[in-house]
Write a structure and sequence with these properties.
alpha+beta; 2 helices
């Protein structure tokens, strides 16, 4: 039995290493799913804000900034420089002064793309590109200024 005196310690070290790798993999997969969910929720937020607020370039910059803060709060998603990572398109009848029923409703399409997910694997700096996200919602008859008061959601 003297030849097996350190066998339990070696088995424990091998088992612990394997167990730690499995746990770390589960944690990283969970973080990746959180990042994907954050990007999808950011797209929904941008669409909702674009559906409620004015369709001006200034308002879109405010929405882009709010979405950027939301995405960066996850701490693991990298946003590229520039403004093409979040795009808005309006489709249909989008004149806010004409409430004719015969016209097609105004739809807001929001596209979130070119984001990447930073993984925290030791000794490696991995960035996985996230898929493009898009959302569509019918535009509402609200504005950034409503009866002389600023709509708080559009600030």
């Amino acid at each position: 039995l003297k030849s097996q005196s350190g066998l339990a310690m070696v088995e424990f070290a091998l088992s612990l290493t394997f167990f730690c790798i499995i746990v770390f993999g589960i944690v990283e997969f969970s973080r990746a799913m959180f990042g994907w969910n954050t990007a999808a929720e950011a797209t929904r937020l941008a669409t909702r804000l674009a559906a409620v607020c004015d369709m001006t370039d200034t308002q879109q910059a405010i929405i882009r900034n709010r979405v950027k803060v939301f995405v960066q709060s996850s701490g693991q998603i990298a946003i590229p420089t520039g403004s093409d990572w979040l795009q808005f398109t309006y489709q249909g009848h989008c004149d806010p002064t004409d409430f004719s029923v015969s016209k097609d409703p105004c739809l807001v399409h929001t596209y979130l793309k070119n984001l990447s997910l930073n993984l925290a694997i030791p000794l490696f700096h991995l960035q996985i590109p996230l898929p493009s996200y898009h959302d569509r919602e019918m535009r509402e008859a609200m504005r950034s200024m409503y009866y002389g008061e600023v709509n708080s959601i559009c600030q």
